[in-house]
C-alpha cells in the first residue's frame, strides 16, 4: 500500500475538505433602530459605527411618528455574528434609542430600495435599454436624445442586476436611496 493512501476509516481528511473550523462567517444584517427625532442622534449612531470600525452598507432615516417625535433608522451592516451582537448591544445603550430590531433574524422581512439610473447611448443601445427596462419594470422618468433616466424600485439584488446589464449599454450615473425594510406579519 502506498504511504499516501488513506483508508475510509481514517480520521484524516482530504485536502479538499481543509477549512479553518474557527473562521467566522461574515453575514449581512438589516437593523431597524427607533430613536428620538432630535439633533445629534444620527451622528451618535454613525459615530458608534465609525469609532469601532464597523461598516455600513446602507443607511436610511426618516421621521415615522410626528406626535411622538420618533425616527426610524434602517442600517444594513456586515460582520461576524459576534460583531453583529456587539453592534445591537451598543446601539441599545445609546440614550435616545428606544428599540433595536434585527430584521434578518427576527423572521422574514420585506426590503426595497429606490434607484435612479442614467443610461447614455444611441441607436441599438437605446432600444436594448428600453427593452431591459420593461423586463425589470423600470420607469422612464426623463428622456433626451442622448440619455434616459430610469426609476426602479425593488430588492437591492434586483437593482444590482439591472445596473450590471445597463453598464455595457452606457450606464453613466446611479443614485440609490438605501434599503427600507419592514418585518412581515403582525
UniProtKB/TrEMBL annotation:
Which keywords label this protein?
Amino-acid biosynthesis, Branched-chain amino acid biosynthesis, Transferase
- What EC designation does it have? 2.2.1.6
Reaction(s) the record says it catalyses: 2 pyruvate + H(+) = (2S)-2-acetolactate + CO2
Q: Which CDD domains match?
A: ACT_AHAS
Gene3D superfamilies according to UniProt = 3.30.70.260, ACT-like. Chain A, domain 2 (3.30.70.1150)
Which pathway does it operate in?
A: Amino-acid biosynthesis; L-valine biosynthesis; L-valine from pyruvate: step 1/4; Amino-acid biosynthesis; L-isoleucine biosynthesis; L-isoleucine from 2-oxobutanoate: step 1/4
- Tell me, how does this one assemble? Dimer of large and small chains.
According to its UniProt entry, the function of this protein is described as: Catalyzes the conversion of 2 pyruvate molecules into acetolactate in the first common step of the biosynthetic pathway of the branched-amino acids such as leucine, isoleucine, and valine.
- Identify this protein by name: Acetolactate synthase small subunit
Amino acid at each position: 500500500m502506498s504511504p499516501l493512501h488513506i483508508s475510509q476509516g481514517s480520521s484524516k481528511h482530504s485536502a479538499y475538505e481543509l477549512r479553518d473550523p474557527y473562521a467566522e462567517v461574515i453575514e449581512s444584517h438589516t437593523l431597524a433602530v427607533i430613536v428620538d427625532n432630535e439633533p445629534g442622534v444620527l451622528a451618535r449612531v454613525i459615530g458608534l459605527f465609525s469609532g469601532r470600525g464597523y461598516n455600513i452598507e446602507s443607511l436610511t432615516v426618516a421621521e415615522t411618528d410626528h406626535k411622538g417625535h420618533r425616527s426610524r433608522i434602517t442600517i444594513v451592516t456586515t460582520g461576524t455574528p459576534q460583531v453583529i451582537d456587539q453592534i445591537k448591544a451598543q446601539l441599545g445603550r445609546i440614550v435616545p434609542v428606544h428599540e433595536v430590531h434585527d430584521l434578518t433574524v427576527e423572521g422574514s422581512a420585506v426590503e426595497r430600495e429606490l434607484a435612479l439610473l442614467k443610461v447614455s447611448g444611441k441607436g441599438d443601445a437605446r432600444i436594448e435599454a428600453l427593452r431591459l427596462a420593461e423586463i425589470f419594470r423600470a420607469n422612464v422618468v426623463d428622456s433626451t436624445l442622448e440619455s434616459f433616466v430610469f426609476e426602479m424600485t425593488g430588492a437591492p439584488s434586483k437593482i444590482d442586476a439591472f445596473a450590471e446589464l445597463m453598464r455595457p449599454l452606457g450606464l453613466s450615473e446611479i443614485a440609490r436611496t438605501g434599503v427600507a425594510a419592514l418585518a412581515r406579519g403582525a
